[in-house]
Amino acid sequence: MPSTRDQALCIRHWDWSETSQTVSLFTRDHGVIRGIAKGAKRDKAPFSGGIELLTRGEVVAILKPSSDLATITAWDLQETFPGLTRSLEAFHSAMYIADVARHSLHDRDPHPALFDALLTALRHLSSAELPPRKVVLRFLWATLNECGWRPELQRDVLSGAPLPNSGELAFAPSLGGFTSMPDAADSPPGPRWRVRGQTLALLRTLDHPADNADPASIERAGKLLNAYLTTVLGRELPAAAPLFGKL
Amino acid sequence: MGPGPAARRQAFPGTVERLIAEFAKLPGIGRRSAERLAFHVLKSEPGAALGLARAIQDVKERVRHCSVCSNLTDEDPCAICADPSRDRGTILVVEQPKDLIALEQTGMYKGLYHVLMGRLSPLDGIGPGDLTIAEFLARIDDPKKNPGGVSVREVVLGLNPNVEGDGTALYLAEQLKGRAVQVTRLARGLPSGGQLEYANKAVLADAIQGRQRVD
Questions:
Q1: Which CATH topology does B5-62 take?
Q2: What is the pLDDT of residue B9?
Q3: How far is Cα of residue B187 from the mean position of the Cα atoms in its chain?
Q4: CATH fold group of domain B72-213
Q5: Is it the case that residue A216 has pLDDT exceeding 80?
Q6: CB contact under 8 A, B125 and A96
Q7: Which of B 14-73 lie inside 8 A of A, CB atoms?
Q8: Is the N-terminal amide bond of A162 cis, ω within 30° of 0?
């Protein structure tokens, strides 16, 4: 069976035995690959000493159509992100975005743009170039866009009318967008979360992000998108709690 | 072709089959190895076989965690915490008892330990409350909770050199800020006696990141 070579980020790993690992790798052109890397931790094996969480490498894998589990035959470490463990917020942010990628994507469903977004996010977190909350918000936005869950930002999801630029709104997660009339009698059932107009205004800038948003708005927008993603996925992500608290 | 698994099982008396099934639950032991072990037990002197059974029973009944450092022990506090000749002002923090054993075998460290019983793992939902961090901080804050009532002067962070271990070390370092203890961590990078050309990329990258000034 032919082997596949691709760029990859390790988004999860488990010890399989003293020397072997099972891993979830987010590859650029083949999506998330789950696989077993036998002997990965042996010094002389072609795995650069073992596949470490949140590192980038070139992976060689045998993808069998008959099995969900690929055979990882080589891992050439190419980039580490040492700055992730210089700040607790960067550490938790990196763990969270890896968790978002793992739970939002189906196995072997390529999303090269999201791979690039994750790599950029890890570089930003490691270099401390941008505040971690801003990096997380941008990655959440990229994920929602790539997976087809982008919230409606221009029109009221109940009335279809253009949304106002300010004032208080509500977010309807089951409808995937905002409304200015959350208590309308004939509206479909489901939760409505109160949201400030500034949060909507900030989300509208995320396609072409500027650096002038205030930290409190970034925090609110991140919480909103995390809560929305939780609803879409139907589960709370384990790594969300240290950043956003329990929902 | 030999008999199938079901036929092999039927060939053994029920009690022997039960012993084989129990051995086969052990890590790295397959059905054939379990059968070999079972036959070894059958051929052994009764004293030797029952000695093995008693050792397993004793381990499960008597071994527990030290109330001070969380190390595995059959007496509380453990032998290390109870040893007055050790430097009780220094605590080396490790993830698991097996890490403590590895460090003890070097014979180089004479202080006390604290075993966290894991590390922060946000992807598994493991946070500070799931580890023995509260007990560790209590030893720092209250000398009466440290063996001999000795105040802790130095904490050595001996967590595994990976992203989760480093994150845990970072969390502990933040918790220790403002407390009157020196915080150090085990050195990392190239192994002594090794050669650069044989070191793997991860080790070399770590060594470059952690390079030190030569005075």
A1: Helicase, Ruva Protein; domain 3 (1.10.8)
A2: 72
A3: 19
A4: Dna Topoisomerase Vi A Subunit; Chain: A, domain 2 (3.40.1360)
A5: yes
A6: no
A7: 28
A8: no
